[in-house]
# Entry
Amino acid sequence: MRIDKNYYEDVSPEKEALIISIIYLLIGSIWVLRSDKFFFKTIGDIERYTRIQTYKGWIFVLVTTVLIYFLVYDRVKKIRNINKVVHKSMEELSVTTEGLASTQEKLHREKKLTDNIIKNSTLIIFTWDLEGNILSLNPYGEKVTGYKEEEIIGKSWIELFLYDEEKPKVEGLVNYMKSGKSLKNSIGDVWKSKDGKDIELIWTDSPILDEDKEVVKVISIGTDITDQKNLVRRLNVLAYYDTLTGLPNRTLLRNEAVKFIKEAWLNNEKLVFLYIDIDNFKQINDTLGHDAGDELLIHIASILREEKEDIFYLAKLSEDEYGVVLSDIFDEKDIVNRTEKILEKISKPWCTEKHEFIISASIGISVFPDDADDFVSLMKCANMAMYQVKEKGKNGYAFYHEEMGTRIVNNTFLINQVKRAIDEEHFLLQYQSVIDLDTGKLEGVEALLRWHHPERGYIPPMDYIPLIEETGQIFDITSMVLRMAIRQKKVWDDKGYSFFKVAVNISAKSLIKGGLEIEIEKLLQEYGVNPKELVIEITETAFMDNFEASIYTLRRLEDLGVSISLDDFGTGYSSLAKLKSLPIHYVKMDREFIRTMHKNSEEEVVVRTIVELAHNLGLKIVAEGIETKEQKYILMESGCDLGQGYFISKPINPEEFEEKFLADNKKVSTDD
# Structure
């Protein structure tokens, strides 16, 4: 509460005493000087005047008493009011003082808390003046930057911490701070620490104002996001780069290709995409191990990297596939020259662990915008061309053409129709007889799959078997064929025709998948067929893909009593040592040895050698593809055990086979 200064002056002790004295003096003097003269003139009698004087004295005392009362009352009242005001002011002052003390204590606590926050914060907190000179730096800032606060006070943080290329980014910061506005979550500063490490930060900059609302300094609070940014970079590498070779992966290539194609389109330029697949990589990987396979992939990547002048962009598409983009194309001859150069580089001998290998590749070529005007389609075209090379023997290149697209469409149609064909029983089995060449007696039959499509008619196995092996549908087909063949064998057994064996071809993938022996055992038990009357035919490449897994499955089948036949013998790459370790009972000589064979020919010598080799291994040999009488007699003279082919019988339906081969042999059996 505020008290008027004049109010204090009115109650001055000297002044109050003087006022009362003067009033009393004036009234007393008037009374003394005027009252006697007044009463004497009025009364005139001295005796009476004397009595009046007594009353006058009492009247004077009474009047002066009353006067003094009111004078003192008025002054004391003022003093009392002043005391009240003073007392109230003192109370308010006491409350204000207590509030100030509490505020000071609170400010002290808050200052202590703020100091602790700054001291223990995991944020970089520093202040600087409008010249960029550092005024303070907290302990975490010291830890991150490597500088002590006393080392850098007064130094420019821009010159001390920023790289030259980063400095232009903060040129406008001081001017912005002078406006009195804060700048929050600004990203992009890369600081250099005392030991030369990079620190990436997010900043919040706030100006500090004085009483006149003028900016005097700036407080900057920085969050160290170095670890987060490094994590993002690592994730980016995992998402967009091949971890083995460091090359861009398929995803990054597709993203970047959008830019390539847009630019080429605007400039009316051509681009070429090469789809490169390393031939026989799986065999190398399985034979030498995955470490050697990785070495090869790194070797191929380094070769392609060396072609900087010819290759515009290089990426790794999958395990053993690479994508190359060529630009600045002159003509087709230029494309051929650059592709052949890449093939030549890849085909140079590659050495690892004292072994030397000749590597080859199949390359498919597509051209923008001739073949496609978007990258996904461009890559599909090159991929189709690459598979064309594979089909023709590998180690070469091929340009995409429209007929390839038609073939792919046809393949897609077939793949989609396989499940329908299984469900609607469009597949059937035909049987080709296998006879003893010496006696002509029926030894067995081979079950051969046939597909009669309701719209397209007969579809040859080679048109769809490779496709369904790639899609995995081969497993369903294998199960279907096994069931159909074993069920048909049961039908013949019930009719008394249990003297011959039924052979079923099994793909490499079905053999190494696992569980084949369990499936066959269940089917044999379900239909009550003797395991000894079932033959499983495999090719050499089937067990070469995974030798150990193949051996395990074949031995389990042998334990059941099932016979194993090695198909296409003589055309694979298996060694005699591996053949001896296989649980096989028959080998089938490939038809290529027989097709051109005639008396006293080189082929006859080869056939005799194969027959002798099989017999030395304790195996029976079957010749397939017999088409002439001469071929049959040469095989008989060579000692070949069994034979099949169109000369003996083409594949026929079960009913026809039963009528032609089984009726006369009814209930005839062979010794086990």
Notes: The longest helix spans residues 46-120.
